[in-house]
């Protein structure tokens, strides 16, 4: 009822009274032609045979997941739209806002060239005012080229991020288009490209979390395009999430004719609800221009307030340490047969799923995300690492300038989004000079936003505000180190384990660039186990474990993606959910491990897999738990306690299948029950079960709103049959467009109205048709099973010509599920790092400090002789010592037989394990001041260093030096010497 009332009020003001500033969706009424065609920009051109489309619409959307990324179609296409200016609307100034096109576009209004936009990523604004015909039909024509090799017209330069590995090519206009009407005195749009304007900037200073107070500042760039000065009362209204006015404040200005001026007002605000992880509390800031006691312009800005700090190797949110946990998601964030152009509520659905897996950060990969995803993260409470655009290396010349320009545009467009915590300057390290340029851009346009700017790597940078490698672990006591994309393993949701049809053996798959699939191609069991193993190494050096810590990392990727792939399927299957966002077991594994700001909620528990097998099957039962002990029961009979590994994984070997129920119970160290989960053996498939879902704000005939329909195969008791693979036939009746889903099989079943369930479940999408309201019925049947159907209504939208208010984007709910930030400390200090005073060594002692200098690009190394392969550290004072962290060169592949002495007493002897970075060596507590690490024999290759995915490049494995054949070489990149804290 509230949503309907809001919509009616909007329609009433927009369509009855008008307003000096109005904004409409410009998504409807477009015509599309694929292929270049002479004269299509001319108003007299006949487009009567062109295809009618409603935006957002990529002309090759049907190829999403049907074709591999490098085969995505490219062409020159034309979009055309005819329109007349709306009656009763102030039209002194008219601006077009395109949230993004792919890749380069040329714009014509009534045959006149009005602009060009070429970066293929960011939003662009166009001033239509001078070329409009006020009382006649206007023709807008856009020529778009989505070639992979597109070159900037003025410079002939390609764009670094127009790449066939990661940037799925959904061509044309795959994002929203809006039209803005204003009076000649107006607040500008945050669209620097072409318009050169910066819009509204909202920020807070003097943030007091405990007192719940801020000093609120609102700045707005205002233009006076009249011939006389204007006395402007700049009025700001702050409203809470319930639309209640919290504060109103104002300041008077004189704005000179023909000038652009930034107006500012500020106020003290108390009782602030702070935005946080999983607590997407947003305010509305309405900035108004009042002239002669009349509001001539009003702009709403959705934003939230939070406090950040990036120091001591850690990220602080609202004064609390927060370890980064999340996903490196492809920016396309696509769905089958649709690409990125999903309905707003589906963006929320997907991004909120990340939060429900207990992720707190999404790192969009390589290119700036769509505005719809950025605003969605604000609502669901998911922090963002927001890139500009690049590929895998620093560049110079025009291609570097393109990156700085894109960063500038992205900062201006998104600087009011509280979820944006990081600006990413590169997917590889950049020079200090380039880093300084990016910092200057941030400081010019977002000095007060509380956002760190950095790049991948930047391990030795003196000015970057965060860093972190791609596939290994870094620690820091300076700027935070966040792994930007770890765990590249892949596996279909369909593949449970080696005992369940189709019996996918772990590691089975085709060769990729001459390498077998054994290191990455998994089933659900092993994919979930690998997720635990990889995260454990980050958790092991989390905040609280010493002076230098890891600030966490993001797993690549969240949802299966139509980007670079290595397996039999033509898309990337590394997701914790599949392409339709149905969870895999690794989703629940992360849910257990990540539930907490730093320390893990001990009640997390998940049994990997299902309990439907043949009578002869014996298998390892795997449980992910955050408790200290886990006990397994089969039909009520205890099978004992699991073997614990990687802190979170509990294994019960060789359990014989018995129909019935298995139950896992987790306990504290003292035996107190923490959690209990069960799996049941289900009966034979009996019927099909449907469930539909659409946005909580309604379902609208805007040509972009969508319905998601889940289909399950269940037994007679209504339980999902986890091994069912039945083919489902769908039948649709009503004003809606079938977009379907995905499954393993011919053409990945893209757009097919028959497709199988996998693991007993699948999902399809349907899209509304513009202006077509009414009842829709979806039926689903399968041979031998009872059928099912669901029905729903598509609501009309209020239109005026092809202008409309996009109701599906209004009143989307805020996710407040995690509550506000915790009040107590979020870290538990488990170790004290002991400071080193001096160092001696068997060779190269002058570089000994490089082994503890917080620079992981440097190391101490001896001269290759076994008798000089030792280094001794003298601590600042005598202390108890019982744990050492070591990062040794070739840490992925080489094992070192070492001895550790404390004041000449041997406390440890053994071979170091291969790791993603750091190995932790524990020994009995020993008091002393000198710690000696000595190579006891030749090092050896303990694990093959697998090839990189792309180009045959070796994975990073330490410093840039060949130690592989130097048997007497000891190389220490970093060492931390600790005293455990009880």
UniProtKB/TrEMBL annotation:
Organism name: Sphingobacterium olei
GO terms for biological process, alphabetical: carbohydrate metabolic process
A molecular function (GO) term: hydrolase activity, hydrolyzing O-glycosyl compounds
Keyword Hydrolase annotated: yes
Alphabetical keyword list: Glycosidase, Hydrolase
InterPro entries, per the entry: Beta-gal/glucu_dom_sf, Beta-mannosidase-like_N2, DUF4982, Galactose-bd-like_sf, GH, GH2_Domain-Containing, Glyco_hydro2_dom5, Glyco_hydro_2_cat
Ranges where the Glycoside hydrolase family 2 catalytic domain occurs: 310-446
Domain called Glycoside hydrolase family 2 immunoglobulin-like beta-sandwich: residue spans: 209-306
Domain named DUF4982: residues: 618-672
Residue span(s) of domain Glycoside hydrolase family: 697-790
Name of the protein in its database record: Glycoside hydrolase family 2 protein
Family listed: Belongs to the glycosyl hydrolase 2 family.
Residue span(s) of domain Beta-mannosidase-like galactose-binding: 77-162
């Amino acid at each position: 009822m509230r949503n309907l009332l809001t919509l009616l009020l909007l329609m009433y003001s927009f369509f009855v009274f008008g307003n000096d500033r109005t904004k409409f969706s410009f998504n409807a009424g477009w015509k599309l032609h694929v292929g270049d065609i002479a004269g299509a920009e001319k108003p007299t051109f006949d487009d009567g045979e062109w295809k009618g489309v409603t935006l957002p619409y990529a002309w090759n959307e049907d190829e999403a997941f049907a074709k591999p990324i490098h085969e995505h179609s490219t062409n020159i296409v034309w979009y055309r739209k005819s329109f007349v200016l709306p009656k009763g609307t102030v039209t002194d100034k008219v601006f077009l806002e395109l949230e993004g096109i792919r890749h380069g576009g040329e714009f014509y209004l009534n045959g006149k060239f009005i602009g060009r936009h070429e970066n293929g990523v960011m939003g662009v604004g166009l001033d239509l005012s001078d070329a409009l015909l006020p009382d006649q039909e206007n023709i807008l024509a856009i020529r778009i080229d989505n070639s992979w090799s597109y070159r900037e017209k003025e410079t002939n330069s390609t764009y670094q991020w127009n790449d066939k590995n990661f940037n799925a090519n959904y061509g044309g206009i795959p994002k929203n288009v809006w039209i803005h009407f204003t009076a000649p005195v107006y607040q500008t749009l945050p669209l620097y490209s072409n318009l050169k304007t910066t819009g509204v900037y909202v920020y807070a200073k003097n943030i007091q979390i405990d007192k719940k107070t801020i000093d609120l500042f609102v700045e707005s760039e205002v233009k006076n395009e009249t011939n006389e000065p204007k006395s402007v009362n700049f009025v700001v209204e702050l409203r809470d999430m319930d639309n209640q006015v919290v504060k109103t404040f104002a300041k008077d200005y004189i704005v000179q004719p023909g000038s652009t001026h930034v107006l500012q007002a500020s106020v003290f605000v108390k009782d602030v609800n702070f935005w946080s992880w999983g607590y997407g509390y947003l305010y509305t800031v309405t900035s108004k221009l009042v002239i002669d006691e009349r509001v001539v312009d009003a702009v709403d800005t959705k934003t939230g307030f939070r406090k950040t700090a990036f120091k001591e190797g850690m990220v602080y949110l609202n004064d609390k340490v927060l370890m980064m946990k999340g996903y490196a998601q492809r920016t396309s964030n696509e769905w089958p047969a649709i690409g990125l152009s999903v309905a707003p509520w589906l963006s929320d659905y997907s991004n909120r799923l990340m939060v429900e897996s207990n992720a707190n950060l999404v790192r969009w990969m390589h290119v700036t995300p769509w505005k719809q995803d950025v605003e969605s993260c604000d609502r669901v409470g998911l922090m963002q690492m927001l890139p500009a655009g690049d590929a895998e290396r620093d560049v110079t010349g025009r291609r570097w300038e393109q990156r700085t320009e894109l960063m500038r545009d992205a900062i201006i467009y998104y600087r009011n989004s509280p979820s944006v915590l990081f600006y990413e300057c590169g997917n590889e390290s950049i020079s200090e000079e380039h880093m300084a340029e990016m910092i200057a851009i941030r400081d010019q346009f977002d000095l007060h936003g509380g956002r760190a700017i950095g790049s991948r790597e930047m391990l030795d940078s003196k000015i970057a505000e965060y860093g972190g490698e791609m596939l290994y672990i870094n620690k820091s006591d300076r700027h935070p180190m966040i792994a930007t994309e770890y765990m590249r393993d892949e596996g279909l949701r369909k593949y449970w384990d080696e005992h369940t049809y189709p019996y996918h053996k772990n590691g089975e798959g085709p060769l990729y660039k001459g390498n077998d699939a054994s290191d990455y191609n998994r089933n659900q069991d092993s994919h979930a186990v690998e997720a635990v193993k990889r995260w454990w190494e980050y958790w092991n050096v989390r905040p609280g474990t010493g002076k230098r810590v890891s600030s966490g990392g993001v797993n690549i990727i969240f949802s299966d993606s139509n980007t670079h792939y290595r397996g039999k399927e033509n898309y990337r299957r590394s997701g914790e959910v599949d392409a339709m966002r149905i969870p895999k077991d690794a989703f629940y594994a992360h849910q257990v491990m990540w539930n907490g700001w730093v320390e893990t909620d001990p009640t997390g528990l998940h049994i990997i897999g299902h309990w439907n097998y043949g009578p002869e099957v014996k298998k390892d039962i795997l449980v992910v738990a955050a408790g200290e002990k886990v006990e397994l029961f089969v039909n009520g009979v205890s099978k004992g306690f699991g073997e614990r590994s990687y802190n979170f994984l509990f294994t019960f070997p060789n359990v014989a299948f018995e129909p019935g129920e298995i139950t896992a119970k987790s306990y504290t160290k003292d035996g107190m029950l923490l959690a209990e989960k069960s799996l049941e053996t289900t009966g034979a498939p009996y019927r099909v079960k449907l469930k539909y879902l659409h946005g909580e704000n309604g379902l609208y005939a805007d040509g972009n709103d969508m319905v998601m329909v889940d289909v399950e195969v269940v037994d007679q008791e209504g339980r999902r049959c986890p091994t069912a693979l039945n083919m489902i036939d769908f039948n649709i009746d009503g004003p809606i467009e079938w977009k379907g889903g995905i499954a393993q099989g011919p053409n990945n079943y893209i757009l097919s109205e028959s497709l199988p369930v996998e693991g007993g479940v699948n999902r399809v999408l349907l899209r509304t048709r513009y202006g077509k309201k009414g009842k829709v019925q979806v039926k689903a049947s399968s041979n031998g099973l009872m059928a099912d159907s669901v029905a729903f209504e598509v609501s009309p939208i209020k239109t005026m010509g092809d202008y409309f208010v996009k109701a599906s984007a209004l009143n989307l709910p805020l996710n407040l599920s995690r509550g506000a930030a915790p009040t107590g400390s979020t870290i538990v200090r488990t170790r004290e790092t002991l400071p080193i005073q001096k160092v001696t060594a068997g060779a190269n002692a002058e570089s000994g400090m490089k082994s503890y200098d917080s620079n992981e690009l440097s190391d101490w190394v001896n001269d290759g002789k076994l008798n000089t392969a030792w280094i001794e550290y003298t601590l600042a004072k005598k202390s108890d010592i019982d744990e050492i962290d070591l990062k040794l060169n070739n840490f992925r592949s080489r094992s070192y037989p070492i001895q550790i002495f404390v004041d000449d007493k041997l406390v440890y002897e053994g071979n170091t394990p291969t790791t993603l970075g750091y190995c932790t060596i524990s020994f009995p507590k020993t008091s002393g001041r000198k710690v000696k690490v000595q190579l006891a024999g030749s090092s050896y290759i303990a694990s093959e260093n697998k090839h990189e995915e792309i180009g045959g490049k070796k994975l990073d494995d330490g410093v840039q030096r060949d130690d592989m054949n130097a048997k007497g070489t000891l190389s220490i990149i970093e060492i931390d010497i600790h005293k455990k804290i009880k």
